[in-house]
Amino acid sequence: MSFARIAAEAALTATPVRRLGLGLAAVGRPGYINLGRAADLPAERTVAAMRERAHEVLDAAYDSGVRYFDAARSYGRSEEFLAEWLQARPGGAPDAVIGSKWGYTYTAGWRADAEVHEVKDHSVATYDRQLTETRALLGKRLDLYQIHSVTPDSPALTDRALHDRLADLAAEGVKIGFSTSGPAQADAIRTALAITVDGLPLFSSVQSTCNLLEPSAGPALAEAHDAGCTVIIKEGMANGRLAHAAPGSLLAQVAAEAGTTPDAIALAALLRHPWADLVLSGAASAAQLAGNAQAAAVRLSDEQFAGLATLAEPAGAYWSHRAELPWN
């Protein structure tokens, strides 16, 4: 299965769960900013324990029908865990589609209490180094390579030498994408979509934060979809803020009406957008993955969908809050 056909297959078959992907940020390293994570992972977050947990979640996702798996150089050992899982899976899971990202270097040294967890650098030198590292682990299984967390001021948007490098990788058959973050995601998306090399668009995929609390990138993502890009949604659970709903809250009410859980409602609201080709689960356990996967079966009414839209926060406030979330 090609990277571009995952969403198309979901539309043509009875397997809407194919529009869900699995992001490995929460299971590739001992520290992350998801709320409630202390209860989600093994008490001892050794490399061996996290490897076992990552493989359990990967198995649960694949067995449920998920086929897109998303890693990054900065997600600790996520690429390593994913590569090992692919090798151990019968037949190598040939229909699994693999994406990863470069642009952040993991610096925490496998410590959840590290002062600095990752360092951002979108230079050609970092790209060359990290592509070599990614290739050493994933080899030819790499289907999509993304610039990690592009913002409007990123040098990756103007570095022609980098664009040529990325175009060379595209010529080898690897799709080139970018992810975004911050309150100006829409600006970054539109600027990136205008980049061409030899008259051809450089990027064929965009991955952005979008959720019930932070939907501001939606219009730009719709434009990207219409332009032929695959749109991937990350942080659909708002780093755990939408995983649990207070009794009596709107999210809890909609979940009760649908006979499911708040996390499934949060992801179902994203799946309702026709421009959202893939929506990532960031599950840290097989149980969480199973709960997230229920989103594929949820059918929100127009009234419920409109009500959930009222949960949106101003983008600046959302990102300020996110910046204050502790690594745990």
Summed up, what is this model?
By secondary structure, this protein is an alpha/beta fold. It has twelve helices and twelve strands. Helices cover 38% and strands 16% of the residues.
Describe the structure.
Helix 2 (47-64) packs across helix 3 and helix 8 crosses helix 9. This protein has 12 helices and 12 strands. It is globular and about 55 Å long. Helices cover 38% and strands 16% of the residues. The two termini are 36 Å apart.
Name a few traits of the molecule.
328 residues, alpha/beta, 16% strand, globular
How far apart lie the N and C ends? 36 Å
Please state the oligomeric state of the protein chains shown: single chain
User: Strand sequence of the main sheet, in spatial order?
Assistant: 1-2-3-6-7-10-11-12
Indicate the radius of gyration in whole angstroms.
18 Å
Query: What fraction of residues sit in β-strands?
Result: 15-25%
Question: What shape does the CA trace take?
Answer: globular
Total of helices = 12
